[in-house]
């Protein structure tokens, strides 16, 4: 590592304002956004989003306090994160009401289908992973005789191996800011085994889940509103939120619902050129594969076109591959973008590619552990040093999450004591998810609802053809029609789903995202509740 | 929680550039910083910082790749984080060389005194904390008979309590974005017991260590370069780094070395007015108590003045209280700013106060667990909703860190099985740190070195009166004189310390920060190595 460009502290400090004239106006974007048309470009269909809230922008009771909505960072006001937004806040309130006053609602529990959080809905963790974590948390039991009776032999062995990779066996110490080197070696070996192409542990940055890694790349690439990030629509709202927080511009490209959420490079090209014609400089392309919320798994040939497109257009390919283990259909397979680009003969000098992985998804579903990594390739050493510097400001990601990330990339192998149990647990979860993905058939049976299959990931994203009367009622309630539907659904059934407007959708179309994560024995009841609700909703609003 | 201001996604999207004229120029600050005087205000002494690196700003070999130092976010280039900077990179290289080629340097190990990372230097974790963490990681052993033999009864009981606070006992699920409610209840009770004033669990935001909490507040308060944050000089460089990354202005106030790093409100007032006269809008005051890198513990009376100052000037008080357990002198005591402000009769409507706490410091030193919280008070509900929204974009902090944060605020009590061991471990660590803080006497014995006592925290910050000849030699080597000294020290002894220029210091003065964390049996050898080095350095450069 070379020396970082220095003098930073100095230039940060207050100075006489020669530069006053070049400061941007205080809240440029917030003053603009309200006067903007709902969309923007003639060549792109108009997007639909929830109308701005009219909730009080001033709180007179707090007027003596120095921080107000008027003087905070306007980028925060612009940011939205529907997955934990309004509907979830309502759900939490209903849950409290049910607890305080059972029978106060026409359901007895809240079913959180809003978020990919498998263990909150009863999925059990993989035993081997938890054994290793527990042993690394309290290594002094490792050589006690009782431990043999409580833990599998390979978990004990793996814990020793991991401890030996940590300087001083100190699981309570800050690690290298990219993560413990030995764990990165393990992860690199796992990537290599997956792809058949080499991986370099120095390219791995371990992070507290994938989200901080995405933020880090957005922070790196976005200097101003002129910097654009191409994102699929519908998209996972982490991307729109992160772009908003970093002050960039989201350049949408549309997935084609009619062809199973197909990703056409002609659409990418069109949107890229449209953006450039408006003075936007597109820096990166986000691809989520398998798709969230859309569940499609990209064909290898399609991936090659995407790689070629990024290479030719000078875009960083930001590959969200956190659902790489979640593929449910026999005719599709996950291929990493790294493997695809290497198979095309493209190496470090040809394509800038960042792949995100997380311990929260897959069959492991360890959301609460906040483990993940990004593999950064095709980024020059001096730029990578800057990424390292940003990582170093937060010192390191949590060590349990780091250990878990190494475990998911290197699970038990044939012959290990845990192997059989591990396979049974893994296959049990994945085959059950595959069965649960078939809920789409029930959705397709509803009046005015069409739903593509979930080839992968953890979600269904049905389209609801809402009657005009419902749309008018939503308008009157100052809410988006799909949010109106989702709120009604929650109030009637306790089922929490996220309105399509939180993800973006072709204007005039309405969707919701629903996870396939409730346990299988609950699915029939959910389908019944949803079916009954939908029927009565349509009866109320049918034109 | 009310609805978030919406319409964000919409205004993020690419639009025809009516607003082109109000975009700020692409890299305003980077183009300015190089032409700026080293400092800035006639009323403030000039600060010293390491001169800008002249390392290559272009890498011709990577020219085909789309990301270069010229087109990344210039705020990242401005950011510096000395604690893991250049000297540490050199240390890592020397360590590798020692490993590959023992005897290649005049020392046989690297002593990392650069960072407050106790367990990396041999400090053991508190047994009770680790027992509870291990049991929560693998709850299925909780009711096995062998577990009774391996774990203390109160750790088992505590693990059950914690699991019962987690919906579905799912330690692998995302939690509420502020952290698990039951754990926040425990923390609030701990704060209340500490201060004697009520604490509200809804004011607690659990985070992955204190750093993300600091970033969140900077992100909230900083909209542009015009927003200033008052920071002590010397300061912990997380603050300067975070202000740089969010594009604000650091407004320095100077601690008075001569009076044991005293914090005078007259100095605060002077700097505040100076900043305002330059068009800067100071939003917040950072106070680090006990001090980092300076080790002073504020007197309660002084704290009252600071609270009064913030209240009158409309500043948010950002209180870094992560060293609250680290006080080593009988004549000083830690008082939280919350307690001090409440004792003055100031409540929610009077003072905006954010207190940061971490599991990384204290006697626990669990840096790798990344646990911490901020307690946010005197912030109106609508603004707090925005903080919640930002927290929700990253879903939640890691659950083990959350659990540990609850444990440090609610350790074993008299009568618990673990109590005796817990006290012995805690007292052993704190009394040893108090003894190690006396290394300052050895530093004061060195020619031209003066060092205030460390009343608290984990650092000494000696001042070195460097000879002119050394300053000239540093200039010739294009480095700051203190960095020159620290580099020489590392190369000669393997001891890693951080140059004062990374923290800020009164111009013309030179310091370094050194932790008091090496184990006691190593201290005599460290003192000898340091003394020998310093003598030979002075012999070489004495004027």
Automatic annotation (TrEMBL), chains A, B:
One of its GO terms (biological process) is L-alanine catabolic process. Gene3D superfamilies: 1.10.287.1970, Aspartate Aminotransferase, domain 1 (3.90.1150.10), Type I PLP-dependent aspartate aminotransferase-like (Major domain) (3.40.640.10). InterPro entries: ALAT1/2-like (IPR045088), Aminotransferase_I/II_large (IPR004839), PyrdxlP-dep_Trfase (IPR015424), PyrdxlP-dep_Trfase_major (IPR015421), PyrdxlP-dep_Trfase_small (IPR015422). Pathway: Photosynthesis; C4 acid pathway; Amino-acid degradation; L-alanine degradation via transaminase pathway; pyruvate from L-alanine: step 1/1. Residues 166-521 form the Aminotransferase class I/classII large domain. Its EC number is 2.6.1.2. It is an enzyme of class 2 (transferase). Its cofactor is pyridoxal 5'-phosphate. Keywords: Aminotransferase, Pyridoxal phosphate, Transferase. Belongs to the class-I pyridoxal-phosphate-dependent aminotransferase family. Alanine aminotransferase subfamily. Homodimer. This is alanine transaminase. It comes from Prunus persica. The lineage of its organism: Eukaryota, Viridiplantae, Streptophyta, Embryophyta, Tracheophyta.
């Amino acid at each position: 590592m070379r020396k970082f460009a220095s003098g930073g502290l100095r230039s940060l400090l207050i100075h006489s304002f020669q530069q006053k004239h070049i400061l941007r106006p205080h809240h440029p974007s917030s003053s603009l956004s309200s006067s903007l048309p709902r969309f923007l470009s003639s060549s792109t269909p108009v997007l639909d989003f929830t109308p701005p809230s009219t909730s009080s922008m001033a709180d007179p009771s707090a007027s003596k306090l120095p921080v107000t909505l008027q003087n905070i960072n306007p980028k925060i006001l612009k940011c939205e994160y529907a997955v934990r937004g309004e509907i979830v806040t309502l759900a939490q309130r209903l849950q409290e009401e049910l607890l305080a006053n059972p029978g106060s609602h026409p359901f007895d529990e809240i079913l959180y289908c809003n978020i990919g959080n498998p263990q909150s809905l009863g999925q059990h963790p993989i035993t081997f992973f938890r054994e290793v974590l527990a042993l690394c948390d309290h290594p002094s039991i490792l050589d006690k005789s009782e431990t043999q009776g409580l833990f599998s032999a390979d978990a004990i062995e793996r814990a020793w191996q991991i401890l030996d990779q940590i300087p001083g066996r100190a699981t309570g110490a800050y690690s290298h800011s990219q993560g413990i080197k030995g764990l990165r070696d393990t992860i690199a070996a796992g990537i290599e085994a997956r792809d058949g192409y080499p991986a370099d542990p120095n390219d791995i940055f371990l992070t507290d889940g994938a989200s901080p890694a995405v933020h880090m790349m957005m922070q790196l690439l976005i200097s101003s509103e002129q910097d654009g990030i191409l994102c699929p629509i519908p998209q996972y709202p982490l991307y729109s939120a992160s772009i908003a927080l970093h002050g960039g511009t989201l350049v949408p490209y549309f997935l084609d619902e009619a062809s199973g959420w197909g990703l056409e490079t002609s659409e990418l090209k069109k949107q890229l050129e449209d953006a450039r014609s408006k003075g936007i400089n597109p820096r990166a392309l986000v691809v989520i594969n398998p798709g969230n919320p859309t569940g499609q798994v990209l064909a290898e040939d399609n991936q090659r076109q995407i790689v070629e497109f990024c290479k030719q257009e000078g875009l960083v390919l930001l590959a969200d591959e956190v659902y790489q283990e979640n593929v449910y259909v026999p005719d599709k397979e996950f291929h990493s973008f790294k493997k695809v680009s290497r198979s095309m003969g493209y190496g470090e000098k040809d394509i800038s590619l960042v792949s995100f992985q997380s311990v929260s998804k897959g069959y492991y579903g360890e959301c609460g552990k906040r483990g993940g990594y990004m593999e950064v390739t095709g980024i020059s050493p001096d730029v990578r040093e800057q990424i390292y510097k940003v990582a170093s400001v937060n010192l390191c990601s949590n060590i349990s999450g780091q250990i878990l990330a190494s475990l998911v990339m290197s699970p038990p192998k044939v012959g290990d004591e845990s192997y059989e149990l591990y396979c049974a647990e893994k296959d049990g979860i994945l085959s059950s998810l595959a069965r649960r993905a078939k809920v789409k058939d029930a959705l397709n049976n509803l009046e005015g609802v069409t739903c593509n299959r979930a080839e992968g990931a953890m979600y269904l994203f049905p389209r609801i053809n809402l009657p005009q009367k419902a749309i008018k009622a939503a308008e009157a309630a100052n809410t988006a029609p799909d949010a109106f539907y989702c709120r009604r659904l929650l109030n009637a059934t306790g089922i929490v789903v996220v309105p399509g407007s939180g993800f973006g959708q072709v204007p005039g179309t309405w969707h919701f995202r629903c996870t396939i994560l409730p346990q299988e024995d609950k699915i029939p009841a959910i389908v019944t509740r949803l079916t009954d609700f939908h029927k009565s909703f349509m009866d109320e609003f049918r034109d």
